[in-house]
Each structure stands twice: as structure tokens, then as C-alpha cells.
Write a structure and sequence with these properties.
Elements: E1 3-7, E2 14-18, E3 21-23, E4 26-28, H1 34-39, E5 48-55, E6 59-65, E7 72-78, E8 80-87, E9 98-104, E10 110-113, E11 117-123, E12 127-134, E13 143-145, H2 166-169
Length: 188
């Protein structure tokens, strides 16, 4: 197998360490190979790949789609970010809990965020290029967000927040979103 998968404290969220081949020229790795991930229990069908580039301190998120939940496999190809997944399924025992991890061009780790979770990250290096492989296409009418600074979630961002989009700055707190406008364990 070319990668190792570790469970995180949030059921369903997985930390992945791909195998990196290094030599005097640099390194090579496979970001995704269906049969390898399928053998590890991740039989996902990705339909869209996105990239973003941001500067230090920028927070993007906490984003999710509803009523068409979207799973994401994410990683960084340049720089470093503090990446966060939050369980936003009201019928989950882990509702409102979050997990954060550093993803960087040095550790090559990936994070799998299944449908039913909100996702966001903060850039901790001078610049970072971030990639998302998604299980459902982006739909503007399904685009939703939770406040990145929601005190009931209590994410401990490593840097002072900067570069917050208008959408993210105006996002509601998780407890202010009607349960019928959040994904459920059954819908994921």
C-alpha cells in the first residue's frame, strides 16, 4: 500500500500519509489512486478538483454544502495551513466538535473530510497553495458556512485571523442554523 490512514477523534475524518519517494532530484508522490484508497476503505468517487492560493493569516471557511453534502480530500502543495473539520450533523454524538491538523508541503499529509462536516483552514506560512478533491460538484445554491470564530465550537486558530471574505465574516454560528438546514448522519 502506498499510504497510511489514521483515524482522528472525529469519526469518519481520516488523516492520510501518502508514500513519498525521495531522491537527489526531489520527491514524487501519488495524490490519489483509487484502488489504493479503496483497499483502505475509502471508495470515493471524485467529481471536481479545486485549488486556492492564500497568504499568511487568511482563513477560508468554515464551508459546507446543503442539501447536497460534499466530501473533500485536501492537501497542500506549497506552504503550510492549519486545517479543520467540524461535525455539523445535529444527530451526531460529535455535533459541534472539531479536529485540526497541520498540512504542509513538508509533511505531505492529506485530510479526508466526509460529507456532513464543515471545513476550513488558516494559512500559517507566508503563502500556501491548497487543493481539494470533492465528491459532489460545487453548487452556488448549496453553498453554506458556519462562523469561523463561533465560540461554542471554540477553534484555536494559530494566528490572528486575516483576509476573511464577506461571506465568511457574516456566517452564522452553528447553533443559529436550523437543524433542518444542516446535513444529518442519514443524508451522508
Amino acid at each position: 500500500m502506498s499510504q497510511l490512514i489514521s483515524d482522528t477523534p472525529l469519526g469518519g475524518v481520516k488523516l492520510i500519509q501518502p508514500r513519498v519517494f525521495r531522491d537527489d532530484r526531489g520527491w514524487f508522490m501519488e495524490n490519489w489512486r483509487h484502488e489504493h484508497y479503496q483497499a483502505l476503505g475509502m471508495d470515493n468517487h471524485f467529481v471536481q478538483t479545486n485549488s486556492s492560493h492564500s497568504t499568511q493569516g487568511v482563513i477560508r471557511g468554515l464551508h459546507y454544502q446543503w442539501p447536497t453534502p460534499q466530501g473533500k480530500l485536501v492537501w497542500v502543495s506549497q506552504g503550510a495551513v492549519f486545517d479543520v473539520a467540524i461535525d455539523i450533523r445535529p444527530d451526531s454524538e460529535q455535533f459541534g466538535q472539531w479536529f485540526g491538523v497541520e498540512l504542509s508541503d513538508e509533511n505531505h499529509q492529506q485530510l479526508w473530510i466526509p460529507p456532513g462536516f464543515a471545513h476550513g483552514f488558516q494559512v500559517t506560512s507566508p503563502r500556501a497553495t491548497f487543493h481539494y478533491q470533492c465528491t459532489a460538484p460545487y453548487r452556488p445554491d448549496a453553498d453554506r458556512a458556519v462562523a469561523f470564530d463561533d465560540p461554542t465550537i471554540g477553534i484555536d486558530w494559530p494566528l490572528a485571523p486575516m483576509g476573511i471574505s464577506d461571506k465568511d465574516a457574516k456566517a452564522p454560528r452553528l447553533n443559529d442554523i436550523a437543524p433542518q438546514h444542516l446535513p444529518t448522519c442519514e443524508s451522508c
